[in-house]
Specification:
Elements: E1 6-12, E2 16-20, E3 26-30, E4 34-40, E5 45-47, E6 55-61, E7 65-70, H1 74-79, H2 86-96, E8 98-103, E9 106-108, H3 116-123, H4 128-139, E10 143-151, E11 158-164, H5 166-170
Length: 171
Protein backbone atom coordinates (compact mmCIF):
# COMPACT_ATOMS: atom_id res chain seq x y z
CA UNK A 1 0.00 0.00 0.00
CA UNK A 2 1.53 3.31 -0.99
CA UNK A 3 1.44 6.18 1.47
CA UNK A 4 0.13 9.52 0.39
CA UNK A 5 -1.49 8.20 -2.78
CA UNK A 6 -4.24 10.61 -3.82
CA UNK A 7 -6.47 11.03 -6.83
CA UNK A 8 -7.68 14.46 -7.89
CA UNK A 9 -11.46 14.84 -8.09
CA UNK A 10 -14.15 17.48 -8.10
CA UNK A 11 -17.39 17.56 -6.16
CA UNK A 12 -20.41 19.67 -7.07
CA UNK A 13 -22.88 20.48 -4.29
CA UNK A 14 -26.47 19.72 -5.30
CA UNK A 15 -28.05 20.80 -2.02
CA UNK A 16 -31.13 22.92 -2.75
CA UNK A 17 -30.73 26.48 -1.45
CA UNK A 18 -32.69 29.70 -1.71
CA UNK A 19 -31.16 32.05 -4.25
CA UNK A 20 -31.98 35.74 -4.58
CA UNK A 21 -31.95 37.33 -8.03
CA UNK A 22 -30.95 40.95 -8.76
CA UNK A 23 -34.64 41.95 -8.73
CA UNK A 24 -34.95 40.53 -5.18
CA UNK A 25 -37.04 37.51 -6.22
CA UNK A 26 -36.11 34.24 -4.59
CA UNK A 27 -36.06 30.74 -5.99
CA UNK A 28 -34.98 27.27 -4.97
CA UNK A 29 -32.02 25.86 -6.90
CA UNK A 30 -29.03 23.57 -6.41
CA UNK A 31 -26.08 25.30 -4.73
CA UNK A 32 -23.84 24.36 -7.66
CA UNK A 33 -20.52 25.08 -5.93
CA UNK A 34 -17.72 22.89 -7.31
CA UNK A 35 -14.88 21.96 -4.99
CA UNK A 36 -11.56 20.51 -6.16
CA UNK A 37 -10.29 17.85 -3.80
CA UNK A 38 -7.77 15.03 -3.43
CA UNK A 39 -9.16 11.61 -2.60
CA UNK A 40 -6.91 9.75 -0.11
CA UNK A 41 -6.66 6.35 -1.79
CA UNK A 42 -4.94 4.84 1.24
CA UNK A 43 -8.23 5.23 3.15
CA UNK A 44 -10.11 2.94 0.74
CA UNK A 45 -10.96 -0.55 1.92
CA UNK A 46 -12.39 -3.79 0.58
CA UNK A 47 -16.07 -4.08 1.46
CA UNK A 48 -17.16 -7.69 1.84
CA UNK A 49 -20.96 -8.04 1.68
CA UNK A 50 -22.70 -9.94 4.46
CA UNK A 51 -22.99 -13.61 3.60
CA UNK A 52 -20.32 -13.44 0.89
CA UNK A 53 -18.57 -16.67 -0.03
CA UNK A 54 -15.40 -16.86 -2.11
CA UNK A 55 -16.94 -19.67 -4.07
CA UNK A 56 -20.48 -20.66 -4.77
CA UNK A 57 -22.30 -23.52 -6.41
CA UNK A 58 -25.01 -22.72 -8.93
CA UNK A 59 -27.15 -25.78 -9.43
CA UNK A 60 -28.56 -26.57 -12.85
CA UNK A 61 -30.38 -29.73 -11.72
CA UNK A 62 -30.10 -29.82 -7.93
CA UNK A 63 -28.29 -31.71 -6.45
CA UNK A 64 -26.71 -33.61 -9.35
CA UNK A 65 -25.40 -30.97 -11.76
CA UNK A 66 -24.06 -27.46 -11.47
CA UNK A 67 -21.26 -24.97 -11.79
CA UNK A 68 -18.86 -24.12 -8.96
CA UNK A 69 -17.82 -20.46 -9.26
CA UNK A 70 -14.91 -18.63 -7.64
CA UNK A 71 -13.63 -15.08 -7.76
CA UNK A 72 -10.99 -14.94 -10.51
CA UNK A 73 -7.41 -14.25 -9.48
CA UNK A 74 -4.93 -12.12 -11.44
CA UNK A 75 -3.81 -15.06 -13.60
CA UNK A 76 -7.42 -15.63 -14.64
CA UNK A 77 -7.91 -11.92 -15.39
CA UNK A 78 -4.83 -11.91 -17.63
CA UNK A 79 -6.41 -14.58 -19.83
CA UNK A 80 -9.50 -12.47 -20.56
CA UNK A 81 -9.36 -11.05 -24.08
CA UNK A 82 -10.50 -7.43 -23.86
CA UNK A 83 -10.61 -6.92 -27.62
CA UNK A 84 -14.13 -8.30 -28.10
CA UNK A 85 -17.51 -6.77 -27.44
CA UNK A 86 -19.15 -6.50 -24.03
CA UNK A 87 -20.87 -9.90 -24.40
CA UNK A 88 -17.60 -11.63 -25.36
CA UNK A 89 -15.76 -10.08 -22.41
CA UNK A 90 -18.61 -11.05 -20.06
CA UNK A 91 -18.52 -14.64 -21.33
CA UNK A 92 -14.74 -14.77 -20.82
CA UNK A 93 -15.11 -13.32 -17.32
CA UNK A 94 -17.67 -15.99 -16.37
CA UNK A 95 -15.44 -18.69 -17.88
CA UNK A 96 -12.45 -17.39 -15.86
CA UNK A 97 -14.60 -17.71 -12.73
CA UNK A 98 -15.44 -21.39 -13.14
CA UNK A 99 -13.67 -23.68 -10.72
CA UNK A 100 -15.43 -26.72 -12.14
CA UNK A 101 -18.69 -28.06 -13.52
CA UNK A 102 -20.21 -31.31 -12.34
CA UNK A 103 -22.83 -33.75 -13.52
CA UNK A 104 -23.36 -36.65 -11.16
CA UNK A 105 -19.93 -38.13 -10.43
CA UNK A 106 -18.31 -36.44 -13.45
CA UNK A 107 -16.25 -33.33 -12.68
CA UNK A 108 -15.19 -31.09 -15.58
CA UNK A 109 -12.40 -28.51 -15.28
CA UNK A 110 -11.99 -25.47 -17.56
CA UNK A 111 -9.21 -25.72 -20.19
CA UNK A 112 -8.92 -29.43 -19.48
CA UNK A 113 -12.40 -30.80 -20.10
CA UNK A 114 -14.00 -27.90 -21.96
CA UNK A 115 -13.00 -24.73 -23.81
CA UNK A 116 -14.28 -21.15 -23.60
CA UNK A 117 -16.07 -21.69 -26.92
CA UNK A 118 -17.87 -24.86 -25.81
CA UNK A 119 -18.78 -23.23 -22.50
CA UNK A 120 -20.27 -20.22 -24.33
CA UNK A 121 -22.44 -22.57 -26.38
CA UNK A 122 -23.45 -24.35 -23.18
CA UNK A 123 -24.27 -21.05 -21.44
CA UNK A 124 -26.67 -20.19 -24.27
CA UNK A 125 -28.73 -23.28 -23.33
CA UNK A 126 -28.99 -22.50 -19.62
CA UNK A 127 -32.34 -21.40 -18.18
CA UNK A 128 -32.68 -17.73 -17.23
CA UNK A 129 -32.85 -18.50 -13.50
CA UNK A 130 -29.43 -20.21 -13.66
CA UNK A 131 -27.94 -17.15 -15.37
CA UNK A 132 -29.58 -14.96 -12.70
CA UNK A 133 -27.79 -16.98 -9.99
CA UNK A 134 -24.47 -16.64 -11.82
CA UNK A 135 -25.01 -12.87 -12.08
CA UNK A 136 -25.92 -12.68 -8.38
CA UNK A 137 -22.58 -14.28 -7.48
CA UNK A 138 -20.76 -11.40 -9.21
CA UNK A 139 -23.14 -8.73 -7.92
CA UNK A 140 -22.34 -9.81 -4.36
CA UNK A 141 -18.55 -9.77 -4.86
CA UNK A 142 -16.33 -7.68 -2.59
CA UNK A 143 -15.68 -4.15 -3.85
CA UNK A 144 -13.34 -1.26 -3.21
CA UNK A 145 -15.08 1.37 -1.06
CA UNK A 146 -14.36 4.78 0.42
CA UNK A 147 -16.66 7.15 2.29
CA UNK A 148 -15.57 10.78 2.55
CA UNK A 149 -17.33 13.42 4.64
CA UNK A 150 -17.73 16.65 2.65
CA UNK A 151 -18.91 20.11 3.65
CA UNK A 152 -19.75 22.65 0.98
CA UNK A 153 -17.79 25.87 1.60
CA UNK A 154 -20.64 27.99 0.14
CA UNK A 155 -23.84 26.68 1.73
CA UNK A 156 -22.39 24.58 4.58
CA UNK A 157 -24.28 21.43 3.56
CA UNK A 158 -22.67 18.24 4.92
CA UNK A 159 -22.87 14.86 3.25
CA UNK A 160 -20.85 11.72 2.71
CA UNK A 161 -19.46 11.05 -0.73
CA UNK A 162 -19.42 7.30 -1.33
CA UNK A 163 -17.10 5.71 -3.87
CA UNK A 164 -17.57 2.02 -4.65
CA UNK A 165 -16.03 -0.18 -7.29
CA UNK A 166 -13.03 0.48 -9.49
CA UNK A 167 -15.04 2.69 -11.85
CA UNK A 168 -15.67 5.26 -9.10
CA UNK A 169 -11.97 5.41 -8.25
CA UNK A 170 -10.36 5.42 -11.65
CA UNK A 171 -12.94 6.64 -14.18
Amino acid sequence: KSRGAVAPASYTCNHVVTKTAENSTTSQAPCGTTVQMNIPLDKAYIHVPEGYKESSVVFINEPTSGIKLRQPNMEHYKKIKLSGGVQDITDEFVYASIECMFDGDRIMVPDKDFTPESFKEYMDTLPGEVMDKINAFFDDAPSLRLELPIQCPSCGHKETMKLEGLDDFFA
